[in-house]
Amino acid sequence: LDQAQFVKRTQKVSVTFSEPMNSTSLANAILIKDPGLDVVPITPQYNADNYTLSVNPDTPLDYQTLYTITIKQEAKDLAGNFLDKEYTSSFTTERLPQQPPRITQRVPGEDEFNWYEGIAITFNVEADDPNDDILVYQWEVNGDVREGETFNEFIFYPEPGSEGSYMVRVSVMDGITAPVQHFWIVNVVQSDPNDNGGPGSEPFNWTLMGIILILVILIAVMVYGYWSLMERKREIVARTRRRLRPLSLKKKAEVEKPPTYEEMYLRQDSVYAKKSPEFKPVAAPGERKTQTKAGVEATVDGEVMGEAPKLIKAEGVEVRRATGPYTTDAPELKKTRVPGALVCPKCGQKAIEAAHGRVWCDTCGFVD
User: Fold this and answer.
1) Distance CA 207, CA 107 (A)
2) What is the pLDDT of residues 190-218, one digit of tens each?
């Protein structure tokens, strides 16, 4: 059966070995699979006289289908030796016998109905062929074949003044078997001007209305989705721009900080002043020459113990001696006594006097 064509669906498959085989090992040694790799149920029979294994399908195989036969290597002879290798073969079953086409759907669904004159009606049929033959359609109205109408759709138009009964017949043919037919009885009546479905107007088509409604909903969903996507895109772009905003090269204006208690404090005599700076002791090595402001050399002696240096000799300069651990006099602090409450010259609010002759306002800060 290797590569055989048009095999009977109930064909027995036989395999012959070169020597006597162990029948027990042959029970599951042969498989038949369909194109979907599903195993076909079979019944094996071993003939010890001619070393032949025969299998019969439990049910007829499908038409025009490729099957694969596999003989596994687990088959053993009487000495316990396995088959030398696994063997595979295939075959194709016979073709499906010629069958006529079948009508699966028709429109209108009613076989007999009334219809108004001057209004067109569409007939439609769906058909298939088990043998995949090409189908041809033929339409007739009261036995009159409509030439050129060879498709599965036909439009019947009863002209005005053509009241009566009409038989619309369709024949589906594959060119081999007998045609398959179906017919409708259409009772054409005169249109009533007072009837809502009468003159020149077709009956309301709910199917068309449903299709239009579905299309409108789909378009609305697509528009909303596109709008949401654009909004999301704009939001992402805005966030990205905020993250990537370049640093400003414009120098920010320095904001003057209010005075601290180290810079300004209140005394009982209503005098504000800045605390005097603290000076660290200066250690001067002994017998060191120094240049005075007047350009005259002077000799300085002292001990490196925090003692202020002493000027021994200077020519053409005025020497001022300092007492204590400081090398220079402490700067004099200007004191301004304010007889009453101050007013900010800018905003007119209440202010206080700060150090160095300035005024502090909570609104304007330091004001000269």
Assistant:
1) 12
2) 875 555 444 444 556 788 888 999 999 99
pTM: 0.39
Which one of 129-138, 306-315, 331-340 scores highest in mean pLDDT?
Answer: 129-138
pLDDT, mean over the chain: 77
CATH of 102-189, one of 3.90.1150.10, 3.30.420.10, 2.40.160.100, 2.60.40.10: 2.60.40.10
What does the buried/exposed string (b/e) look like for 92-110 if buried means 16 or more CB atoms within 10 Å of the residue's CB? Answer: bbeeeeeebbeeeebeeee
Predicted confidence at residue 24, as pLDDT, reads: 87
For tokens 């002879």, what's the residue?
77
**Looking up tokens 């969903």, which residue turns up?**
221
Annotate 27-63 with b (16+ C-beta within 10 A) or e (fewer). Answer: eebbebeeeeeeebebebebeeeeeebbbebeeebee
Phi and psi at 164, nearest 5°, equal 150, -175
pLDDT at res. 350:
78
DSSP 104-156: EEEESS-SEEEEETT--EEEEEEEE-TT-PPPEEEEEETTEE-TT--SSEEEE
Percent of the chain predicted with pLDDT > 70: 68
Residues 4-93, CATH architecture: Sandwich (2.60)
**Burial tier of 282 (Cβ tally within 10 Å: 0-12, 13-18, 19+):** middle
